[in-house]
Amino acid sequence: MPAQQKKIIFCIAGVLSFACALGTAAAIGTQRWVKGTILCKTGALLVNATGQELEKFIGEIQYGLFHGERVRQCGLGGRPFQFSFFPDLLKVIPASIHVSVILFCTVLIIFALVGAGFFMFNAFGSPYETLHGPVGLYLWSFIACSCGCLIMILFSSEVKIHHLSEKIANFKEGSFTFKTHSEQFANSFWIILVCSLVHFLNALLIRFAGFQFPFSKSKDSGTITGAVDLMY
């Protein structure tokens, strides 16, 4: 492939990596990771609510990695409640998983920025054929993509398997019991998915630029190696 086209491809990949770093950084600070509704089970059972009457006992909840908000509905109108994961909910939620999600988000941002820098370095400089060159670009893209996948797996398990929404809804509730009525992942979660796909796309762009995947031997390299052996 001509050098000009390689430069364009590396510039596109660098811009995409930088955009992913900014998107992940923005996603971490929002409370739009999960959005759903919670049912005041105790209140609904007391009045034997059914059908449209249940709407008076269904509140809303949304949260991110650091903070969130829920609206408590127990038949007397909505009562908003702000909460923070640190340090309020650490004893209630699976803290190890939650902290791991935050750490992998940080690693994703770091390697997305590193990848963006090296893509630009390969576009406008003369890199070495080591971590500065295509091998490094594959490595940074692979690490960033892997971190994105781990973030989604860990956070999904925290929400679905450990019932994070119910634990938050029942936090500091003595006489009332809440149950998750509906929940879905919100914008910030899907930003992580898009970033993972972008880093995978960057690896394909590197291959499209004419650089083979690491640890793959071409026929030409084997021929050259054989010729060198014959010289000695």
TrEMBL record:
Family of this protein: Belongs to the clarin family.
Protein name: CLRN1 protein
This protein's UniProt keywords: Membrane, Transmembrane, Transmembrane helix
GO biological process: equilibrioception; sensory perception of sound
Annotated organism of origin: Spizaetus tyrannus (black hawk-eagle)
PANTHER family documented for this protein: CLARIN, CLARIN-1
Major place of residence: membrane
Localization: Membrane
A Pfam family that the UniProt record links to this protein: Clarin-2
UniProt xrefs under InterPro entries: Clarin
Membrane topology qualifier: Multi-pass membrane protein
One term under GO cellular component: membrane
Transmembrane segments: 97-123, 135-155, 189-209
Gene: Clrn1
